[in-house]
């Protein structure tokens, strides 16, 4: 079902919103910065060297990525006053990540989100996965792709591009088949972080890859994300049960607190959603569904920053940081508390291997898994 496809056109799903915004604050000036990638030693895990790559574009925007978990550790950009800070939550050292934060910035796999009871069938073959979220399987299990050391290769300096590869062996966390995974991160001069995911397998297996960056556009988790604005191009979502497993239903957001079809303040109705937002949105697909489409716009008036999310995926998990509880402290010293950061995870729908009615996530030998997601930071649009 997954085909190899190329991106040539960006379909702007809600063009109206994009047009007419901006103004002088959005204009860029030549910074004179040289784009490139720097690689620094960052420690070792299980005897394998860990590095921190710093991708810098010609505007001086920097994204730091480690080959431990393929983790985006920071994304430093100016706010409307020219002050620089990171729009994602992360740590300055590897030890922060070894303390097992809840997937900060990491690549998630082999399967993003939950698989009910950690089990599924492919044809008549039943599989049992590691269960690491009560009775369910979450984000790839006990040692998902967020906790392994990837092999990093810098492939371009002028448009900083980092390739990360990982071989997930047959039986890892209970999954069938050797899965070869390639994740390509590119930082463009337009402040886009492009992520391209590719995989192939030698046995049928579920695959659902995503990135688990936690955003706070203000650059400081001392500010709640309840004041951020959010628009999601989705008329429907997938309801969940009390263990956050999708029920299999696809329901309209209209008339519910899940409706973000027009921009809403996140905190406006969050108390009407028990536990907060942690739901998969069924993206409205227009035209060729293999093309990148604008899925969501996050905005923050404090910093003047906005973030546009484009994807080829059918779903988007909006997670409002409900389980953040102050256990972890951000690089700037602020405690990472409930609703101080949020995730916009592009994906197939949770528990698809057990939900025949959802688009399939089974990758078969001979097929290519190939998806694209772009996070684009914009100054001057709130
Ligand atoms: C899930 C949450 C989970 C979190 C872990 C999100 O993607 O939807 O339920 O608690 O990841 O940090």
Automatic annotation (TrEMBL):
<dbReference type="InterPro" id="IPR008183">
    <property type="entry name" value="Aldose_1/G6P_1-epimerase"/>
</dbReference>
<feature type="signal peptide">
    <location>
        <begin position="1"/>
        <end position="19"/>
    </location>
</feature>
<dbReference type="GO" id="GO:0006006">
    <property type="term" value="P:glucose metabolic process"/>
</dbReference>
<feature type="active site" description="Proton acceptor">
    <location>
        <position position="345"/>
    </location>
</feature>
<keyword id="KW-0597">Phosphoprotein</keyword>
<keyword id="KW-0119">Carbohydrate metabolism</keyword>
<keyword id="KW-0106">Calcium</keyword>
<feature type="binding site">
    <location>
        <begin position="113"/>
        <end position="114"/>
    </location>
    <ligand>
        <name>beta-D-galactose</name>
    </ligand>
</feature>
<dbReference type="InterPro" id="IPR014718">
    <property type="entry name" value="GH-type_carb-bd"/>
</dbReference>
<comment type="subunit">
    <text>Monomer.</text>
</comment>
<keyword id="KW-0963">Cytoplasm</keyword>
<dbReference type="GO" id="GO:0005737">
    <property type="term" value="C:cytoplasm"/>
</dbReference>
<feature type="active site" description="Proton donor">
    <location>
        <position position="212"/>
    </location>
</feature>
<protein>
    <recommendedName>
        <fullName>Aldose 1-epimerase</fullName>
        <ecNumber>5.1.3.3</ecNumber>
    </recommendedName>
</protein>
<dbReference type="InterPro" id="IPR047215">
    <property type="entry name" value="Galactose_mutarotase-like"/>
</dbReference>
<comment type="similarity">
    <text>Belongs to the aldose epimerase family.</text>
</comment>
<feature type="binding site">
    <location>
        <position position="278"/>
    </location>
    <ligand>
        <name>beta-D-galactose</name>
    </ligand>
</feature>
<dbReference type="Pfam" id="PF01263">
    <property type="entry name" value="Aldose_epim"/>
</dbReference>
<dbReference type="InterPro" id="IPR015443">
    <property type="entry name" value="Aldose_1-epimerase"/>
</dbReference>
<dbReference type="GO" id="GO:0004034">
    <property type="term" value="F:aldose 1-epimerase activity"/>
</dbReference>
<keyword id="KW-0732">Signal</keyword>
<dbReference type="GO" id="GO:0030246">
    <property type="term" value="F:carbohydrate binding"/>
</dbReference>
<dbReference type="InterPro" id="IPR011013">
    <property type="entry name" value="Gal_mutarotase_sf_dom"/>
</dbReference>
<dbReference type="GO" id="GO:0033499">
    <property type="term" value="P:galactose catabolic process via UDP-galactose, Leloir pathway"/>
</dbReference>
<dbReference type="InterPro" id="IPR018052">
    <property type="entry name" value="Ald1_epimerase_CS"/>
</dbReference>
<feature type="binding site">
    <location>
        <begin position="212"/>
        <end position="214"/>
    </location>
    <ligand>
        <name>beta-D-galactose</name>
    </ligand>
</feature>
<comment type="pathway">
    <text>Carbohydrate metabolism; hexose metabolism.</text>
</comment>
<keyword id="KW-0413">Isomerase</keyword>
């Amino acid at each position: 079902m997954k085909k190899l496809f190329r991106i040539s056109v960006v379909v702007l799903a809600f063009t109206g919103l994009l047009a007419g915004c901006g103004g002088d604050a959005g204009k860029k000036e030549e910074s004179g910065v040289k784009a490139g990638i720097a690689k620094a030693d960052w420690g070792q895990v299980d005897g394998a060297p860990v590095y921190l790559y710093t991708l810098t574009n010609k505007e001086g925007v920097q994204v730091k990525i480690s080959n431990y978990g393929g983790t985006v550790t920071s994304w430093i950009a100016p706010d409307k006053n020219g002050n620089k800070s990171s729009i994602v939550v992360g740590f300055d050292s590897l030890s922060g990540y070894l303390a097992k934060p809840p997937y900060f910035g990491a690549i998630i796999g082999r399967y993003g989100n939950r698989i009910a009871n950690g089990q599924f069938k492919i044809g008549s073959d039943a599989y049992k996965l590691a269960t690491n979220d009560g009775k369910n399987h979450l984000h790839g299990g006990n040692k998902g792709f967020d906790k392994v050391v990837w092999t990093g290769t810098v492939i371009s300096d002028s448009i900083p591009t980092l390739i990360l590869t990982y071989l997930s062996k047959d039986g890892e966390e209970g999954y069938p088949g050797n899965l070869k995974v390639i994740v390509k991160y590119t930082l463009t001069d337009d402040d886009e972080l492009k992520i391209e995911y590719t995989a192939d397998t030698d046995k049928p297996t579920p695959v659902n890859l995503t990135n688990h960056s936690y955003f706070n556009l203000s650059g400081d988790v001392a500010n709640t994300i309840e004041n951020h604005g959010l628009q999601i191009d989705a008329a429907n979502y997938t309801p969940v049960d009390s263990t956050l497993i999708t029920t299999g239903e696809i329901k309209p957001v209209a008339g519910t607190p899940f409706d973000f079809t027009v921009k809403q303040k996140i905190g406006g109705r969050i108390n009407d959603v028990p536990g907060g937002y942690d739901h998969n949105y069924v993206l409205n697909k227009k035209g060729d569904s293999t093309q990148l489409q604008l899925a969501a716009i996050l905005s923050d008036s404090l910093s003047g920053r906005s973030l546009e999310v484009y994807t080829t995926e059918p779903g988007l998990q909006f997670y409002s940081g409900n389980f953040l509880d102050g256990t972890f402290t951000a690089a700037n010293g602020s405690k990472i508390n409930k609703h101080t950061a949020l995730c916009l995870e592009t994906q197939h729908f949770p528990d698809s291997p057990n939900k025949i009615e959802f688009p399939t996530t089974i990758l078969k030998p001979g097929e290519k898994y190939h998806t694209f997601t772009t996070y684009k930071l914009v100054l001057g649009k709130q």
